[in-house]
Design a protein that fits this description.
Blueprint lengths: L2 H19 L3 H8 L5 H16 L4 H31 L3
Helix pairs in contact: 1-4, 2-4, 3-4
Amino acid sequence: MDQLSERRTTILARLLEPLGQCLTPEVAKALVNLRADPHVQARIDELADKCTEGTLSTEEQSEYETYVYAIDFIAVLQAQARNLLRTNGTT
């Protein structure tokens, strides 16, 4: 992860901390188990491959960045959920 991505994740974690404190164990478990729909995951994989190859169009680049930001958001919530479950001993 590059420095910009790390900073974004840190900022996002700080912003979402109050939300993480509102999680119930049931919601936390659901968040931890959350996975992308297979069609969405296939599109992300397709865009990731094109990004690696350097063949993304401007529109695809924007779409891919949106997915990446959303994934970061979800990952921060999942980390908070795992922490809550670990703290409560309900993993």
